[in-house]
Specification:
alpha/beta; six-stranded parallel sheet; 36% helix; elongated; binds adenosine-5'-diphosphate; binds magnesium ion
């Protein structure tokens, strides 16, 4: 069922509670990376232009339910003010009479940033009384915090009981459309690339993909659990022994469904993830006992690129190796370039994968780059996100 969108609301003269994800990394008194602030600007500007006043709210870090100056949104207010080009005053708190007065005093086209929602334990507890206090600040609700919407917190869920209608912001809508489309009506062939550290982090995703994709390419540390399932000795590579049986079943299911599976055939080996350089590249059947696989080899890379060629849709999560170490970043960076160069609709997500894509300098060439981290993974796994579920129907 499609969700109500902010564009469908009559905003003239209304006070909008805009739940955003302004949880940015800080550096001293400044914002280290303002990507998330820029991402919410379209929704914020849309509301202000439409004649609403906006009460902007977010969490920042983990202040454990009490005020903590280290987790104040003050640096966010300053940066947002620069980006927006108009004042963004910071309220002293997010609930209470003083804040209600500030919200009431706003004129159409003005905004106010609330202090960190997590300064109150009611936020993470999804407490109805806290939600009711937040609801007193506004007339309607917009959620543009897809990245936080896998959590049933008060500003994302309980609040929608007290503040209606509850609409999706523009960023939220784009994310729902891009991610919904690729698994529900993908242009085929659909190729999924999975990598990263652990099979256990991605089991939900693997099982969902088994019912959807035409081709599954597996790299990163997680590949070694699959290679072990095929009887190869992974040396000191990261393996999850308790998942070897599951990996074997996944491969059998893929075969039964006619899904093409690509696993590494060669790997760069080193004595550890922090080594200054690789020892050499070996066939995955010949990993020396004392060494670990830290990147996919060139033959694997060529095969993965080949598998990408016919793709009309590509979804990628998880680096191919220890890309944080420049010595072992080649496979991931080259794959990022190949995905970006593909004529398919490409969707990439995951905290580390997004970092790798930026490192490769190809972020602008992707169809959709999701910065939603955990929410991206849960949505693709097919789980209901409480914050999305709570929104009004269109
Ligand atoms: P994402 O955040 O994009 O979902 P993950 O967190 O699942 O990705 O995986 C990223 C991590 O996986 C990185 O820290 C990377 O170093 C690690 N990794 C990838 N390949 C290997 C490998 N062969 N050995 C050890 N760690 C690996
Ligand atoms: Mg990660």
């Amino acid at each position: 069922m499609p969700k109500l969108s902010v564009e469908q609301l009559d905003l003239q003269g209304k006070r909008v509670f805009l739940r955003a994800d302004l949880n940015v990394p800080l550096a001293g008194r400044g914002v280290a990376d303002d990507t998330r602030l820029r991402a919410v600007l379209p929704t914020l500007q849309h509301c202000l232009k439409a004649g609403a006043s906006v009460i902007l709210a977010s969490h920042l870090g983990r202040p454990k339910g009490k005020p903590d100056p280290q987790h104040s949104l003050a640096p966010v207010a300053n940066r947002l003010e620069e980006l927006l080009g108009q004042p963004v005053p910071l309220a002293p708190d997010c609930v209470g009479e003083a804040v209600e007065n500030l919200a009431r005093a706003l004129k159409p086209g003005e905004c106010l940033l609330l202090e960190n929602l997590r300064f109150h334990p009611g936020e993470e507890a999804n407490d109805p009384a806290f939600a009711e206090a937040l609801a007193r600040l506004a007339d309607c609700y917009v959620n543009d915090a897809f990245a936080a919407s896998h959590r049933a917190h008060a500003s994302l869920v309980a609040l929608t009981q007290y503040l209606k209608p509850a609409a999706a912001g523009l960023l939220m809508r784009r994310e729902l459309e891009a991610l919904g489309q690729i698994l529900d009506h993908p242009d085929r062939p659909l190729v999924a690339i999975l990598g990263g550290a652990k099979v256990s982090d991605k089991l939900g995703l693997i099982h969902r993909f088994l019912g959807k994709v035409d081709c599954l390419l597996i790299g990163g540390a997680m590949a070694f659990t699959f290679l072990k399932a095929l009887g190869h000795d992974p040396g000191r590579s990261l393996v999850e022994p308790e998942l070897v049986d599951q990996a074997r079943q996944v491969l059998a299911q893929a075969r039964a469904r006619g899904i093409q599976v690509g696993l590494p055939v060669d790997t760069v080996v080193a004595s550890g993830p922090e080594s200054a350089e690789a020892v050499r590249t070996v066939n995955v059947r010949q990993i020396p006992p004392g060494l670990m696989g830290v990147d996919i080899g060139q033959v694997t890379l060529a095969r993965f690129k080949e598998a990408l060629r016919p793709a009309r849709t590509v979804i990628w999560n998880g680096p191919m190796g220890v890309f944080e170490n420049p010595a072992f970043a080649t496979g991931t960076i080259e794959l990022a370039r190949a995905v970006a160069g593909s004529s398919a609709f490409t969707v990439v997500g995951g905290g580390d994968t997004v970092a790798a894509v930026h490192q490769a300098g190809v972020a602008e060439k992707l169809g959709y780059l999701s910065t939603a981290g955990g929410a991206f993974l849960e949505f693709l796994e097919g789980r209901e996100l409480p914050g999305v579920d709570a929104l009004s129907e269109a």
